[in-house]
Amino acid sequence: MAKKAKGKMDQLKGKAKEAAGKATGNDRMQAEGQTDQIKGKAQEMAGEAEERARGMKDSMRGKGK
Known about the structure:
The structure is a single chain. The protein is mostly helical. The chain has 2 helices and no strands. Helix 1 packs antiparallel against helix 2 (27-61).
């Protein structure tokens, strides 16, 4: 769950950075914010995949019931 939460935080940070870049006319900051959002989304998806894999592993052992 740590990867998933960190991914969400990176997305929020990226949105803030992108908004600050737009407000100040700083194209580089805006682009960095967009990149942070993409990285955060990828990290969140990786965390979700790990959770699903863990759930499948537990259900195969009979722990999911």
